Amino acid sequence: MHLGGFMILGSAIVGFLVGMTGAGGGALMTPMLIFLFGVPPAAAISSDLVAAVVMRPVGAAVHLTRGTVHLRMVGWLAVGSVPGALLGAFLLHTLGSGPAAQRQVELVLGAALLVGAAGMTGRALVRSRRPPAADGPIAPELPAAIAVHPLPTAAVGLAGGVMVGLTSVGSGSLMLVLLMLLYPMLASSQLVGTDLVQAIPLTGAAALGQLLFGHVELAVTASVVVGSVPGVLAGSLLSSRAPDGLVRPVLAAVLVISGLKYVGVPTAGLLTAIALAAAGGLVVALRRLGPLRRRVKPRLRRTVPGSPSRSGASG
Predict the structure, then answer these.
(1) Following DSSP, what letter does each residue of the chain receive, concatenated?
(2) Mean pLDDT split into 10-residue runs, the chain, 315 residues
């Protein structure tokens, strides 16, 4: 078993993005393994899932210590997600490993990535319509008024589990959105924390299914683990400073471009999508820099030597 230096570096970058933004690692790690390093889709999905068993508890531990995890909700999600992940792994196994089967896996993965991008956009729209208090300071304990709906929550877990077991995408990109739609009163940190913790048994079940069906490449898994674990830790430590409104559009664009590649969009279409994504990102960045400059300029005027100060003006 040989570790790949560039694969470790790429996994560290993806792990950093996962820890910093809370986006699902499968939506980023699996396309990187396939397109940059030529790993077969089935092996990339399986190896990513096994590595996630080591990577995800790092972020989950942070939220558990902060008290932003709804443990009862985690339990009902696991009721659906654990068998769903095993079912998804079995479906991946039944597709086989020939060229035609690999193409089917790519199509399913591409569709999952596009749905994930749409889900992230929907999450942003739902979040923008939520009451401001929902994103305010979080109490050490979750509000007792937020009741868990067992059957819908288990259904969300089942749908996400099947998708994760089949494509390795869904834990962060899809299930978080479904949870937000089902529980709109939960704060964002509580949603992320709950999703990260429920992802531990989910990815564990999916990884077990992949180990049983023999798709895992240990060298790929080891390289992903070595790079992603410190990346996730560093990203989690910096997550409070990350401009979420700037990073998430970039991640959504990555999902769209990767998904279009999987479903067979030609190179010209991909270049057009990249150009549109870059233009959109530039517009978003300029719109967000404007208010920042207006807040910074008054502070600079007060600190420049010889500029009138409030004390001088009052005297």
Answers:
(1) ----HHHHHHHHHHHHHHHHH---THHHHHHHHHHTT---HHHHHHHHHHHHHHHHHHHHHHHHHHT---HHHHHHHHHHHHHHHHHHHHHHHHT-SSHHHHHHHHHHHHHHHHHHHHHHHHHHHHHHTS-GGGGSPPPSS--TT----HHHHHHHHHHHHHHHHHHS--TTTTHHHHHHHH-TTS-HHHHHHHHHHHHHHHHHHHHHHHHHHT---HHHHHHHHHHHHHHHHHHHHHGGGS-HHHHHHHHHHHHHHHHHHHTT--HHHHHHHHHHHHHHHHHHHHHHHHHHHHHHHHHHHHHSTTSPPHHHHH-
(2) 79 82 70 86 83 83 79 91 86 72 73 75 65 45 66 91 76 72 76 81 81 78 89 74 61 75 76 75 64 53 53 46
